[in-house]
């Protein structure tokens, strides 16, 4: 699960109750999942990824740090 954005725009990534990491971009979500041996080729479209509080393009406060 990708949790709603924090005040700084980052998003926690968990598997059930287990924290996997903190993402600042959709690419981070893919890498966090890969490190947990969960290979997802498209985090935006995968049924394995549940987005809460916004989708894979919703990173408020962080857009100035990443090129689109």
Task: Record the SSE blueprint.
Elements: E1 11-15, E2 18-23, H1 26-35
Tag the structure with descriptive keywords.
68 residues, alpha+beta, two-stranded antiparallel ribbon, 1 helix, 2 strands, globular
Instruction: Write down the overall geometry.
Output: globular
Number of domains: 1
Largest pleated sheet: 2 strands, antiparallel
Mean pLDDT: 90
Number of helix segments?
A: 1
Oligomeric organization of the protein chains: single chain
- Identify low-pLDDT runs: none
Largest beta sheet: what is the strand line-up? 1-2
Taking all Cα atoms into account, the compactness measure Rg is 11 Å
Number of strands: 2
- Through-space gap between termini: 23 Å
Sketch the topology as an H/E string, one letter per element.
Answer: EEH
Helix content: 10-25%
Q: Structural class given helices, strands, pairing?
A: alpha+beta
Instruction: Report strand %.
Output: 15-25%
